[in-house]
Design goal:
By secondary structure, this protein is an alpha/beta fold. Helix content is 48%, strand content 11%. The strands form 2 sheets. It has a 7-stranded parallel sheet with strand order 1-4-5-6-7-8-9, sandwiched between helices. Strands 2-3 form a two-stranded antiparallel sheet. Helix 12 links the parallel strand 6 (237-241) and strand 7 (259-262). The structure holds zinc ion. Residues 203, 240, 242, 263, 317 line the site of zinc ion. Zinc ion is lined by residues 203, 240, 242, 263, 317.
Length: 340
Amino acid sequence: MTEYTPKERLYRTLKKMDVDRMPAVCFTQTATVEQMEACGAFWPEANEEPELIAKLAEAGHTVVGYEAVRVPFDITAEAEFFGCQIKPGTREQQPSVIGHVAATPEDVDRLKDFMFGGTARVDRIIGSIKILKAKYGDKIPIIGSMIGPFSLAQHLNGDNWFMGLMMDDPVTQPLIDMTTDFCIQYAQRMVEAGASCIVIIDPTASYELLGDEFYSKFAIPYHKKIAEAMKAMDTPSILHICGDTTKGIHLMDQAGVECISVDQKVDLKKASEAVKTAIIAGNLDPVQLMWKGTPAEIKEMCVKDFKNGAKIVTLGCGTVSATSTENLKAFAECAKTLKY
Ligand SMILES: [Zn+2]
């Protein structure tokens, strides 16, 4: 039987090509306090410095046994780049966005001449990918993650975002066009630095929150643009949206991403039957199972999820930082035993 490198195995799985077995990977946030203690890189510094970001990402591979490394660990670097006020994170908790910068079309005009290549955290995350690429070359895939255009627009606009969408606020369209343009450029830079696939984390672009009409109008076309830009670089993209998206999976599938990463609330069987283009990844419960469950329960659920149609069994959302290495290892070890 052909032996694939982890990078080949992940690529082939995402591209629906023949492959020997499931890759053990996590598309959502991977860091935990136990991994920080094992590798010596701790939040919040490990959200900031390229060397420390790379070191903590690497722990997912060297400590847990994932067949990939993934950066970063939060979804605020993009809003920070545009000047939003950020509440700093702690050792256990990720930073969050608390101030907003784009209330009007004029604000968007002022923000749209952004430039990469400085010292912003997005640039330092790109730096961490270069460090990982130099170390792991073509063997271990590097998963580059970013917030999606919808949730970034919400971060920039603030609490009024959903109401603005419904009421046709004039800021809505220019803002989401701008965040999409940013996401495409950011993803391209991550790939140029060495990322082998891109995860779009768009938590609030949820079918559960938006419904058919608004989801089709304000989410799909923008995810599609990112997916197309990534295809042009032969780089698979993975779309993660939080909440119960079961009824919207067929719409998410129209974005043309290679993989849809689904939340623990999603019915896997229905989701996997609803897709024509993408494969489904998910959806181990990060709280009740991965944090609070036992290794035996985790292994049992991995097999169940696989039987229900998950092509890549993995976490349904970001890893809780208090999750034990023992539990994460149980998942990684089980994923490696699953053959297609
Ligand atoms: Zn999620």
